[in-house]
Amino acid sequence: MPARASSPPTSSTSLAALPPRRLLVTTPLHLRALLAEGRRPMPLEAVISATAPLAAPIAAAVERDWQAPMLEIYGATEAGSMASRRTLHEADWLPYRGVACRAEGVFVPGLGEVRLADLLEAGPDGRFRLLGRRSDMVKLAGRRASLADLNRRLLEVEGVRDGVFVAPEDIERNPAARLAAYVVAPGRSAEEILAGLRSRLEPLFLPRPMWLVPSLPRDRLGKLSQRALSELRLTTARIG
Question: Is the pTM of this model over 0.85?
Fold first, then answer.
């Protein structure tokens, strides 16, 4: 009789097989899924997240429910890993030794001055703040915002499991253009989500329209492509 195929190991079983002083290295998307399912892994020395900024409520839930420090790593394709922070206690990033924030990017030992796709703002004590990607900065009525920062604030609204802001193609030439958003929030209405956003955003940046969807078409790395979002829009009912 052929042997029965075994199920692939989950993160919980993989962690259980390790000796104490375990570290879980993961992503915001994976953390949201684990927390939504009520998963409680083996005792951890720390949790480390990368690939995208982590929303503060997720960091708070990890530290509260898993009793482990929630850390983040910041890096870029152009320069590799460059800084870290403890999300719940630090808004700014602490660069690794020798790394320094510059007006147009960073100085990295061995690489020199590196221009990044991200915009950084130097802060006190050598730290820096991540403002967003140069390509995702939007301007409405003279006010600027980062789509990445807007996404982070959206994910902080109670009941929102996933979501993304999208800028219209004519935002630079149409004074009446407004941002849209796709939101995954089972059991929540568009009005409730907008009410949660009003305390976090200027009215100008509230999403109009908003689409409530069962899921976002993320790839295996948790990324969203413009093509996938365009296809999603064609099949989604408009709200707002």
Answer: no
